[in-house]
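Researcher: Let's try something more involved. This one mixes different molecule types, so please make sure each is placed in the same coordinate frame as the others.
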Amino acid sequence: MASEDARYRQSSQFRLWSFSPAQLAAAREKANILAQSSIAARLASTPNTSAPTSNANTPDRDGTPSLPEFLTPAEEATMVSFYVSELLRAGDHAEVGEVVKATGAAFFRRFYITNSIMTYPPQEMLIVSLFFACKAEGIFPRIGDFVSKFGRDRPDEILAGEYLLCQGIRFAFDVKHPFRALKGASMELRRLGDIEEQRINAAERRAREILNFSPLITDAYFHYTPSQIMLAALSLADRGLAERLISHTFHYVAPPTDSGPGTPMAIGDAPTTRRELKIEDKEAIIGSQIRDKVLGTVEACRDMLAKELPERREHWSNKAVFKAQIQPIRKKLAKCRDPDRYNLVELQRARREQAGNRSDSEEDEPEDNGRSLEKDAAVFGDALPRDTKRRKVVKTEDPFGPPL
Amino acid sequence: MAVSPLIVPPADALHPHPQKTAPSPLKRQTSAVPSSNGTPALVRPPGQDIQTGLSMSLDRVEQMNEQEKRKYIKDRKLGEGTYAIVYLGRSRQDSTQHVAIKKIKKQKEFRDGMAPDAVRELKYLQELHHPNIINLISAFSSKDQNLNLVLEFLPYGDLEALIRDVTHVRYGAADIKAWMGMLSRAIWFCHENRVLHRDIKPNNLLIAADGEVKLADFGLARSFAEPGHRMTANVITRWYRPPELLFGARHYSGAVDIWAVGLVFAELIIRAPFLPAENEVEQISLICKQIGTPTEENWPGVTKLKEYIVPSEVTPVWERSAYMGRFGAVGVDGVDLLVRTLALDPRKRITAHEILEHKWWRMDPKPTRKEDLPRGGGSEEKMGSDLKRRPGLDDESNPRGAKVARKLDFGAAK
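Model: All components are placed in one shared frame. Result:
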């Protein structure tokens, strides 16, 4: 309970929002497929809305009703990255702090793991994410002031998405960032006493620049802990300093095993076993094996961040890139988005109406206790694929390693 | 510690090419993606229920929410206040498992979406899991977009009721030690997780069926601020508010909670509020009179605080011996701990961690086992009234009146 690691495992960031790359890809693919089928069904039920040249009664040559071309998971991923870069620019424009921007980016990315970009409008959701990130970080701006910063005069467009976002991020509002870890690292490096101040400052500055962009626009937060992300950014800024810090932390070298009975370690019976355990503990916590593991992990994270160094900000806001890569997907998206869910204000109104119709029977009233259990089983049986996967993983092998 | 990367990553992340399964958004991976660009057939994936033509189907997140909601049955209303309605509920799977469902009301005066109290409470309860902190079991939204928190059910009221009920509830030093131990562990855990509670008082300490005390009501909580960041001084119910906040300090630490812990300690001993003032000016006077006048000598820099005003007649800080008469029931060491929590200068105040290391815990009497602790006539309705309150505010149902002057300036604390 008391160790920092044990507490990290209790955090919602670990419990709900940490995945292996395979799990993450599967979740996104599922969101994409579900969106496709739901939008297809919706379009098929009301012909002539999006495909004026055909209708449901006139099948295509191959015999299926004409449907728009849907986005692929890869195209969705491109769009999510593009909109995260937009979100960061919006954050700069609104002059919110670095933590708020990072939290907003994390909310946005989390939201679009279980939701498709075809289902809910990213342009609105990025403002919603930024707005709610302010609140999650303890700043409570007036919605009218906030939206006016973006030249919008419809606060309801953003407020209508707030609840949606909260559900999508599973009511977990705390995001753990690597910024404070970086401050700690630079203090730690200074304490070593033999590194030039200038070098530390330059590395810290560059690492901070990286942390303000690279982990936010990649999947780093889903795969790595804040301290791993920090070390990867520091390594990109100054590999020598990062490795120094890691080898300084995991410095333990076990005494030679053939030390023989003459060494004080082996004197006495019970103490021996206790000492040996201690050595094992040390080895497990600050030994060379764990050092190599950490180095490997930091290296993998570094590779991920290296694909989106801060210089790539320019790429994402470049007009030519926009025209060549983003615009075609946006055009496609305009044809395949969910007609019921893209207008958040209308969606909220519809949902409230639905709630109103049923409020007498269900809302705030003790529920009918005689509801059949089979129905429950049906609901519970359809557990989230992620959850089942997680359970499986835990059973076979804790992805985060053995207890320390 | 911040750099201790002791957490090893998911196994997959160790593979040299994690991108293999998570395609880089920059590359149009035409072949690697299984679902092709071609016309998708109208195949519904299993488990997907689409009600075309009828009311809009639920998306995946809404389905998850629905599942969460259906795990609980609301039995009956326990109480209703300005901030929330509290229901007694139970688990659908295990009807012996009772829960409290706190439905946050939409607040008319707050037009900017989800209200700050709800955001804070949910944020911190999601993260803090500890035997002495009220357990958030789940959260879901109801159809009218109200937020519902499913909390562990704590049927035995709160410490305030216990303290007040002098006719029915008797308790002694060992019981006080047990309660203080639980409160101290709760606040240590908050601070260890960089969370300031900012509303510690006896009626936010609820009592579980097994006697365990649980810190509740995180509607005013916040994370420790980054150095230089300003926070509002208008927190913590007045009687428990430390001098630095009364003097308008905008930079403060966990020490604000510790002062409140000290006043709960004092109240447990004398069974009455130790410093019950009618307003903030009187609150400062009471502190000066009962504890000592904050001056540059005992608190360097205090006169620089924006709202520093003290009565002209300076009272020297009272020695430990002066407390023995009124608070001697907890012994010399107990009094020592009390005095350390009530240090005027927040930098000299004992920390939560140091409280847990204090020698009082190791002295006789030993703390009472939690199942043997005295209980009040707590009732289900009591939890209703405890939870429905607006954080930091007492409403009409509480006879202690509006002793809190709390108006948070949400815009200013940038």
